[in-house]
Amino acid sequence: MNKFKYLVLTALVVLLASCDDSLENRIDITAPENAQQLFTVVPQSADQVTYKLIEADVQGIQGIITIRDAGIMGVESFMKLENTIPGIMHPVHIHEGLFGNNGDRVITLNPIDGDTGIGRTFFDKKDDGTSTDYYDLTENHEYYVGPHYSMDDMSTIIAAGNIGLNNPPIPCGPCDGKVTALSFIYEGTESARITVEQKRGGIVFDRVVSPQEQFSIDGTDRKGTLSTEIYMSIDGAQVAKIHTSCSIPIGIGYAVSDFIIVAGESRNGGPLCDLDESDIPEPCNTCDGKVTSLSLVYNGSQTVDVKVEQQRGGEIFNQSVDPGDVIQLIGQDNQQTLSSKVYIMVDGRRVEEIHTSCSQPIGPGAIFGDFEVIAGSSRNGGVLCGMP
């Protein structure tokens, strides 16, 4: 399998093994924020499809189910519903035929957690013990899924959708609105304890994984997204940082250290597409010729109304943002640059001023109150490097 190496504007975390594999005692030595990370794009041959689930007996509950060929793990089913009922586990089964025809139950899936709206299952057999695979579920037969309200109320279907032979899947799209879920394959040569920790929001995965085993992580904030960055550790040593804010391309085939992304979703873009050469950002540089774009993550503790105005050129952003949301600022003058300064207002009060003329250092890692730059570009320098 060919591997194409590229430079991406993300920091490479230096590997150091820890004598104690506990999280509390691990040794993390991080490269400077303006370092560039060497990563590879490894094309993936595994198939996957995503289907829409529409509301059924309970108004407002809808979402998706992704069926994926998970290699030695069999088939992966990933379900994510909006507006599920907190405190309730919603049972899920795959049935024969089309929804509404009362088809026989074929496969019992793990329930959907009403607190998160997420349910994930790896399987290679039907309930009767016969083998199944990705192609049986998606190309050879018709099936449907209808999550139930609860074990005590199996007659109420909260959402439903057909999968398989005659149901068109949802097309993939570029990352938009932050990543909600990622699946990785571990390419290491020995079993190891893998830990995935968010920049904000804590640990989302922590267990021993075997070579070629696949594992998955899901967003934990109130919008179901991951933090803007995640940190990958092997046996207690941090080995990589991955941007999950959508400020840098991310998709299937993204490979770093001993991990390859084999599936994923973003909040507004749906299933992530395969990466190719055109998705890879150019090498970073210092700001030159005024800023053309900035991505800011809001790190405050509560929802606020944010307005961003240019010194010249007027308002360029005005909406409510939640903690962890990413604000995109795009230059709109005849050279597609921002004004020399932009002003951030929170709940009607000016709180920050950002120099976007390149007269002062600016790039990922620059902090302005509750706002942090996570990506950007300038007219002559292209992609902005991180702050020293």
Distance between the termini: 36 Å
> What's the pLDDT, averaged over the residues?
87
User: Rough shape?
Assistant: globular
DSSP helix count?
A: 1
| Gyration radius, rounded | 22 Å
Into how many domains do the coordinates divide?
3
Number of β-strand runs: 32
The major beta sheet can be summarized as: 8 strands, antiparallel
Task: Record the strand order, biggest sheet.
Answer: 9-8-11-14-5-6-7-10
Tell me what portion of residues adopts beta-strand conformation: over 45%
Q: Segments where pLDDT lies below 50 for 5+ residues?
A: 1-36
Helix content, binned percent: under 10%
Give the structural class: mainly beta
How would you characterize this protein structure?
With 388 residues, the protein is mainly beta. It folds into three domains: 4-41 and 172-279, no CATH class; 48-164, Immunoglobulin-like, CATH 2.60.40.200; 291-383. Helices cover 2% and strands 47% of the residues. The strands form seven sheets. An eight-stranded antiparallel sheet has the order 9-8-11-14-5-6-7-10. The longest helix is centred in the middle third of the chain and has 7 residues, at 134-140. It starts with a strand and ends in a 5-residue tail after the last strand. The relative contact order is 0.15.
